[in-house]
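Appendix B.2, paired examples.
Example (i):
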Amino acid sequence: MIREVIGIGDTEQEALENAKTQLGLDENSEYDFEVVQRAEKKVLGLFGGKQAQVKVTVNEKDNPADAAEKFLKDVVGAMDLNGIEIEVEKNETSATFNIEGEDVGYIIGRRGETLDALQYLTSLVANHVDNSYFKITVNTGNYREKREKTLEILGRKLAFKAVKTGIKTSLEPMNPYERRIIHTSVQKVRGAISWSEGENASRHVVIGPDPKERNNRRGGRGYRGNNNYKSSKPASNPDRKPLDESGGAGLYGRID
């Protein structure tokens, strides 16, 4: 962003200092200046004379958080919704935008698709400011927390179902972050596995029985010394590592 002002003073130096004061610059600030009008003394101390004018220009580097905030507010404003307010929390490497208001349901969209799209686009804007990773979170109330809890319960429920019935289940398409939540939940249930199928917007999670566990169960029937399968009920398995489809960098991973 470029800012410029014209300072006025009895001398060029005074005009320069006046312009710097208007812009809030100090001795360490970087700026360009141009003498617009040199000072002219009055004739005989009574007639004519002009004050000096100096134009100072500052080319400020855009801040990722500020660029993201402006973009998000412009988009939400263009949606012409009632009573929408955006609260912002910023730090050096991330920014969180919480949207509240009467028509916030339109911003969430079907299964959070509109909210996810807003976060994705806002992240693109922020990360193109200086081409370094800047994490953006767009939320409304505690919607994302509720969604995450719902997915965790769903993944665990279908994992137990897969172990019990031996039948796999395909879920609806999800973004990488939501798929990772499902994988994390499923892979804590012994005897169940999950994987992803499909491409792009159609990519989804499939939950099914773990073939290795089923083979172990069959092979262990004649060996009474094997105490690993005393019960047919699947056990919790918190040590299994979940699949990470998000890249560990937020809703859609790092955006380049």
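Example (ii):
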Amino acid sequence: MSRSVLVTGGNRGIGLAVARALASDGDKVAVTYRSSPPPPDLVGLHCDVTSAAEVERAVSEAELRHGPVEVLVANAGITRDKLLMRMSEEDFEATLDANLKGAFRVVKQVAPKMLRARTGRVVFISSSVGLRGEQGQSNYAASKAGLIGFARSLAWEFGKRGITVNVVAPGLTNTDMIAALPEKRIAEMCAQVPLARMATPEEIAAAVRFLASPEASYITGAVIPVDGGAAMGH
């Protein structure tokens, strides 16, 4: 059955791979974007997840096109990497606002209809950094770790209505952000991964696709690392 799917930050990288994977299964997919729109074969909704009004509008547009959202993938986020002594309060707050509060705003909008329908899938995109930490990324790590506690609390709240809430925690992934780094730095980062390479966005999308599938109907509150072993033991 074709479902109504919303992927935040689905215009590129991991979000785009997730959107394409779910669309290939026949789902009706809408994606939000803040700057560059997605490819024309996907429904793009301009939305800054730090704005409650924009989130409300984007969810309403998705519902008008495809019906109430049945699968939500909260992927939108930012980085403002700095060592703590150089990090401003605004750097810290902006990262939490986009990565953690942004997810709160979106799920708050889609949850009422999921609860009434007594079915739904919510997947948050966290990070291996949220499990193991990383120097220069204390704000990012805090926001991504926060998603795990948020997801597990919602798993308790929503479980009796048949809604699952899970987390995928990607590691180093071959996206535009990583591709912009010098080759030497990429090699150093890969050397810290047991599998000694980056993930592809499609490998992350495969985990999301599974958690959104009927086969994952008895999985909730889980954190699935797709990180080549980088956060093993955390």
